[in-house]
Amino acid sequence: MIMAAAASNESPNRSTEDKTSARRQNEVNKKLKYISLAILVIQNASLILSIRYVRTLPGDHFYTTSAVVMAEVLKVLTCVLIILIQKRGNVKSFVSLLYDSLVVQYLDTLKLAVPSLIYTLQNNLQYVAISNLPAATFQVTYQLKILTTALFSVLMLRKSLSKIQWISLVLLFAGVAIVQVEQEGGKQKEAVTSANQSYFKGLVSVIISCLSSGFAGVYFEKILKGSSASVWMRNIQLGIFGTLLGLLGMWWNDGAAIAEKGFLFGYTPMVWGVIFNQAFGGLLVAVVVKYADNILKGFATSFSIIVSTITSVYLFGFHVDLIFTLGAGLVIGAVYMYSLPKPNTSTSSTSTSSSSHSKGGDPELDAFLPNPKAPGKKKRN
What we know:
Blueprint: H1 2-56, H2 64-86, H3 91-104, H4 106-111, H5 113-132, H6 135-141, H7 144-156, H8 163-185, H9 187-193, H10 199-223, H11 231-261, H12 269-288, H13 294-316, H14 322-339, H15 346-354, H16 363-366
Helix pairs in contact: 1-12, 1-13, 2-11, 2-12, 5-10, 5-11, 6-13, 7-10, 8-14, 13-14
GO molecular function: pyrimidine nucleotide-sugar transmembrane transporter activity
Protein name: Solute carrier family 35 member 2
Membrane topology: Multi-pass membrane protein
């Protein structure tokens, strides 16, 4: 009797504690979502704006091929350091993990050569595109990667899209087309003030970059389904190939000039800031995206377009007219529409999409982050 009474008293107390804990965790998760939104917006907008800024400054310019290589090297070193910290400084265990992941499972490593090649090409093309296009125009046009990713997903992964998503893709294409027509009309005026820039070269570069981004993302998802490798190990594998391929591209394109002037020619504190942003920004987003669902990511992308456009007006003298506003507005609306969950599968599709970068439940990632779904888990008896 006494034990039964004690148990009944404990039950309400435990229920109250669970509710309080769940409420606190929900508040923490809400704050983390807003922080995630801010980080995603800042990373999206700042990288494009900073690249545009350093590429349009007067004087000697750095070699973009060397910047791509440097970013890959920094990314690999960062991931190596994170894994070493996770192993509590145990060098033997760390080396054993690297040997097993890179050498023993060499076939899995080789699978990443293709997306790594495409990502390296994409990173180089981004520099070319941003060097020749206004930052706001690039930001709007680059959203075509959503269209290419969707099409490759349908073709390669047999994924289905909702009617709203198909409509959003049409609006996205229409918005980008309107922006290009508007820019084409003002291209001659811009060419007078930007003699060293080619709008056509920038446009071709961003289109190829969107195609490569869509294919690489879908291919990467396809070959890594069921993979147990952590997000940090995957980045090391990609970074190794990216560094080697980047060095090959650097030698092919700027080898003679870099041999004469040096690998770090033209590097200023601002250039280093761009490289660090490119290297660590992607890793930061991979962590942050754990707390960002599809709607939040879509809103972040849309808001970053607005931030880039407003900043470009003050920083680069970019002119915003009614036609550009209409095109950009269609793109912003389309991005948000595409990120909306599918009817009847909103919960599952959102949770699946939001964890796609970290392969939900990644123990290596969870070691650094609190689990946002912790309160919902029931204790086993």
